[in-house]
Write a structure and sequence with these properties.
single chain, alpha+beta, Phosphorylase Kinase, domain 1, Aminoglycoside 3'-phosphotransferase, Chain: A, domain 2, 2 domains, 6-stranded antiparallel beta sheet, 3-stranded antiparallel beta sheet, about 35% helix, about 20% strand
Length: about 325
């Protein structure tokens, strides 16, 4: 099976990929499961909001092209190509449907993927009709994913950037961030919370997790959850990382609704606080003297995690 992308490109370079790409393209697709997919001719256009791990482009009206930006993101192509078709029929919302796994070529060094275009808009708060209802839908997705048979699934590790394992993998980085933020955050309380996260343990059977549930990977239509995208950090293991959205997107009644709907035991929530704390701390170190808006977001996340702990949540 092969795919050929041809054309001209311009823009600042990433290590292995142009950040922006404007070209006319012909994609030749081989035989898939005994069925022919016709040649698609059309424009390749960058998506409105793109990720860091991959560059995604519209291919005409019905497909997209997904290209990893560096070697450590490339294993996700094979993983998603194998597992997304297995997960899809068991989940309550649409997820990406891989069509072709392309091979390195034409100066691009990694495998890449062509998928069906997933319709919807990024789940910005002003596009969501009822945030509490939306939170319950996200919880339903998490529980449905955990319920999928995880036998032979990809065990958490390097391919998932250690989501699905203990946050202890990031212990050194987290403590370094805490030390650098002395005087800007309540370091003793944050350290105590991080210690509690490391002391938590997942003792149940390994289950599927998404690994990066955030507004940018949730799509809405008519104000409701319609799709979940980007399974690059997914795998099988401890699902605590999927609960981080409780602090990063939900608040007030919507957080209560999410936590009530998703359940999970206290140890998982302790681990989830650790994952949320790690993410907020590394963001804070990067942004605190450069980006006031993002700094405020990360400080809010840390404050709300601490408040949850104070209330015994």
């Amino acid at each position: 099976m092969s795919g050929v992308l041809s054309g001209s490109a311009r823009g600042p370079r990433l290590p292995c990929l142009h950040r922006t790409l404007r070209m006319r393209t012909v994609v030749r697709l081989g035989e898939i499961g005994g069925a022919k997919i016709r040649c698609a001719v059309g424009k390749v256009m960058p998506v409105e909001i793109d990720g860091w791990d991959n560059r995604t482009y519209r291919l005409g009206q019905e497909m997209s092209v997904r290209l990893p930006t560096a070697a450590h993101y490339a294993p996700a192509i094979e993983k998603e190509h194998r597992w997304l078709p297995i997960l899809a029929p068991k989940l309550p919302v649409v997820i990406p449907a891989p069509l072709v796994k392309g091979s390195p070529g034409h100066g691009y060094p990694f495998s890449w993927s062509i998928r069906r275009w997933v319709k919807g808009q990024i789940a910005a708060l002003d596009r969501i009709e009822d945030l509490s209802e939306f939170a319950v839908s996200v919880a339903g997705f998490i529980l449905a994913l955990q319920d999928v048979d995880a036998t032979d699934g990809p065990a958490a590790g390097a391919h998932s950037f250690y989501r699905g394992t203990s946050p202890a993998y990031y212990d050194e980085e987290t403590r370094r961030c805490i030390a650098r933020l002395k005087g800007r955050i309540v370091t003793d309380r944050v350290s105590a919370m991080w210690d509690a996260a490391l002391a938590s343990a997942w003792t149940e059977r390994p289950v599927w997790f998404h690994g990066d549930l955030a507004s940018g990977n949730l799509l809405v239509r008519d104000g409701r959850l319609a799709a979940v995208i980007d399974f690059g950090t997914s795998g099988v293991g401890d699902p605590a990382c999927d609960l981080v959205i409780s602090w990063t997107m939900f608040f007030g009644d919507s957080r209560v609704a999410f936590r009530s709907a998703v359940g999970q035991d206290r140890d998982i929530w302790a681990g989830a606080r650790g994952w949320a704390l790690w993410k907020a701390l590394i963001g804070l170190v990067e942004d605190i003297d450069r980006d006031r808006k993002r700094t405020a977001v990360n400080l809010r996340v840390i404050d709300e995690i601490l408040a949850d702990r104070d209330h015994g949540s």
